[in-house]
């Protein structure tokens, strides 16, 4: 098992790991304009990233499990916390039974998720929490049995969600609390479930469902 613990002040951090198991990465970056790029491929991997005390931080996390035999669970997961404004997160997850947890506290933050799996029984669990003004979340979910929970607390928030898959597909719970929020959901396939709660003024919700 590999363990990596790093605390950084205003730095660029890049970590690329070829196929392996039981890897752990713990990264803390303090101050402004930090960059974290992490890629893991394997099974039972975990990533914890904390970017705090500054603004304009960027995190790009990619966890892959495409080369596992059969329907073996990848059981990967990561937790990201960004505190500040103008922060950016890009999360890519490929595999079975992966977990993604992201928290952004501040203004003008951006989160982009691309979650995919081919399992008939076990999907990915994704949670996003954004608090502040003018935050944006763009989420794509492909495969089956993926679960999403997204909360945006503040003004002028936006959520764009696309869910695509066959039977036994995705569940999404979305909550926006504040003013001038917008929500756009597209569902392609069957058996999708979406629960939406918007609290505040001038909210807009658009839902498109297409069964193939």
Strand segment count: 19
Helicity level, as a percent range? Answer: under 10%
Poorly predicted regions are 1-10
Percent in strands: over 45%
Helix count from the secondary structure assignment: 0
Give the averaged pLDDT, no decimals: 81
Estimated radius of gyration: 17 Å
Query: Structural class of the secondary elements?
Result: mainly beta
End-to-end distance: 44 Å
What labels describe this entry?
212 residues; mainly beta; 9-stranded parallel β-sheet
Descriptive overview:
This protein has 212 residues and is mainly β. It has one domain (58-210). It is 0% helix and 62% strand. It has strands at 2-9, 12-16, 20-21, 23-30, 35-43, 46-52, 58-64, 77-83, 88-94, 99-105, 110-116, 125-131, 136-142, 147-153, 158-165, 171-177, 182-189, 193-199, 204-210. The strands form 2 sheets. Strands 2, 3, 5, 7, 9, 11, 13, 15, 17 and 19 form a 10-stranded parallel β-sheet that branches. The chain has a 9-stranded parallel β-sheet with strand order 1-4-6-8-10-12-14-16-18, with no helix packed on it. The termini are far apart.
């Amino acid at each position: 098992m590999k363990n990596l613990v790093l605390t950084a002040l205003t730095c660029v951090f890049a970590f690329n790991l070829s196929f392996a198991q039981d890897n752990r990465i713990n990264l803390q970056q303090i101050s402004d304009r930090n960059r974290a790029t992490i890629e893991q491929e394997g099974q039972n991997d975990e990533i914890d990233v904390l970017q705090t005390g500054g603004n304009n931080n960027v995190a790009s996390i990619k966890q892959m499990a495409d080369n596992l035999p059969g329907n073996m669970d990848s059981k990967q997961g990561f937790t990201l916390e960004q505190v500040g404004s103008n922060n950016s997160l890009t999360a890519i997850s490929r595999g079975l039974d992966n977990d993604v947890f992201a928290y952004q506290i501040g203004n003008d933050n951006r989160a982009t998720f691309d979650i995919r799996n081919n399992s008939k029984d076990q999907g990915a669990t994704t949670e996003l929490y954004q608090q502040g003004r003018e935050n944006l979340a763009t989420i794509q979910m492909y495969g089956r049995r993926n679960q999403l929970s997204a909360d945006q607390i503040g003004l002028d928030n936006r959520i764009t969600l696309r869910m695509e898959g066959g039977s036994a597909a995705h569940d999404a719970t979305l909550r926006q609390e504040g003013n001038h929020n917008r929500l756009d959901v597209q569902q392609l396939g069957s058996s999708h479930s979406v629960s939406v709660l918007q609290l505040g003024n001038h909210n807009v919700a658009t839902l498109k469902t297409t069964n193939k």
